[in-house]
Amino acid sequence: MKNLLSEDDQDALRETCNLAMGAGGEALFDFTGQFVTLSIPKIQQLGGQSEPRDLLAEMGSVNAISVAAQEFSLGQASASALCVACSESLAVLENAPGVSSSAVGARFHQQMSQVLICTALRRFAEVLELELALAPLQLLHHNQPWGKVDLPKIALLGDTLSVEMNYRLESHVYNASLVFCLPEPMQTSVLAALHRLMA
Questions:
Q1: Among 18, 60, 69, 127, fewest CB within 10 Å belongs to which?
Q2: Matching Gene3D superfamilies, A to Z (predicted)?
Q3: 10, 92, 110, 155, 195 from 81: Cα distances, Å
Q4: What is the pLDDT of residues 43-64, one digit of tens each?
Q5: pTM (two decimals)
Q6: pLDDT attached to residue 49
Q7: 49: number of Cβ within 10 Å
Q8: Which are the contacts of 169, defined by CB distance < 8 A and separation ≥ 6?
Q9: Which residues, including other chains, have CB under 8 Å from residue 113's CB and lie 6 or more apart?
Q10: Which of helix, strand or coil describes residue 147?
């Protein structure tokens, strides 16, 4: 399995994703009305035989998950951003005071994912000075056990670089991870952008 990123590259990518994660956290605060706790972005180089759980080391043990995905591209290179949430925590959050949405169930997760993914991706692209094209967000699974979850092929295509950003709320059981899944062609584009920033 190839590893295109040096330690300096990983540090630069982690710092860039910190900024994207922070932007997503601000948007999540606006959406939920609750203070957000951020993790340190976890970078992993995964092989083509990886499983969905391999992308989500920071979520811990959860019984059922809800998954939304948004593909994005730069020229011929494509990648995917996933919002994976603990379904039990979503059900509680729907009725929490301060939440700005009246939606429930799958629609609630879709709205929350749209807020989180789009905000973080736009900040990621802004920092790297990349013109990313965003496809429409898709709700893939709602309240499904791990064994029934299939992720987009692009998320586990070949040697994929993943960055997991886990979000919690200070006064709530909410648990969700935003994951950027970067197959090798997109890794090359992101790496070039990081080198421009570090030059």
A1: 60
A2: CheC-like
A3: 18, 24, 13, 8, 22
A4: 988 766 666 677 787 877 788 8
A5: 0.89
A6: 62
A7: 7
A8: 32, 34, 35, 36, 37, 93
A9: 68, 70, 83, 85, 137, 139
A10: helix
